[in-house]
Specification:
The protein is an alpha/beta fold. It is 36% helix and 16% strand. It has helices spanning 12-21, 31-34, 67-75, 95-100, 115-119, 143-148, 171-182, 186-207, 231-239, 263-269, 281-294, 299-302, 320-332; strands at residues 44-48, 51-55, 62-64, 82-85, 125-128, 152-155, 214-221, 224-228, 243-244, 258-261, 273-278, 306-310. 44% of the residues are buried.
Amino acid sequence: MNTTPLLRAVPVAALTLLAATGCGGTGVTNDAAANGEAAEGYPVTVENCGRQVTVESAPERIVGLSPAQTELLVRLGLADRLVGQAQTAMHELPEDVAEKASEVPELSTDAPPAREQLLDVQPDAVVAPTEYEFTAEQGFATIDQLSDAGVTTYVAAGGCPERRATGEVTDLFTDLEALGSIFGVPGAADELVAETRGDLEAVEKAVADRPRPTVAQLFVEGKTISAIGAGVEYDMIDRAGGENVFSPDEKLFEQFFSAVVSPEEIAARNPDAIVFAVREQSEAERVETYLRQTFPDVTAVKEDRFVVLRTPDTFPGTLGNVAAVRTIAEGLHPDAF
């Protein structure tokens, strides 16, 4: 997991002052809120990771703490409100999104921004893929610190700790609806939900009632193999018309959605297909070579049934979740498309 050196803590009082003064003391304000009046359609309250998140008016200085969240915000029409994007090296933004976000300041590349880096742009809202982005031990601003400073935080539903092992692709729709409410763009959110839900349902319809091949979804690092048996990744396999050879009910996945397994365990389950995710094409070739050498007698290898996903498409709270379902479905049921 990415780490950043622990930096000096900023007192809560200083955080509050930063949020109150805004950029150069002239932060964006809402006239109704400034006059003690409720903005039209506000206040809005949504539930997020067991917390009640309430906003009195639409946030105007937003930070996306990963490319996936930045993409959601841009596609919701909020590019002009973005004051920062983070972890930009995780993966590239789609070309049309990258163009609209080209002027948004880059706060960090390989890890979440440090506390001071985030606060320096005086956000009034931040959107994150997981709660890791708010880990004090890593030098990041915590949710409580940001809340005390008047900053709204929202974590992708599938990235909430209690959802990581039970997440579903449709958690994305929860995120879109919540973000639409928080940022005052419910119409744009509804359109994006309808479009994305339509894409997902089209795939599910195409593979419905077809024989379901068995699938092992693996993560290979060197010679260490982890099997994925729970979470949004598990749901992807199911919606794509596959039957995961690993199950959330197994002891292996009591604590986490993935677990290190031996090559013998994979061979014994003999999947019809193997799904794995990579960041780069060169990595895909390396993993596939390793799998062929390690499992020559496994059906997936003998029948050359590998499905390669983009790692970013497996992250919680990304439009890529739906793209991943289609990729898997096309690999398992090529004659259905």
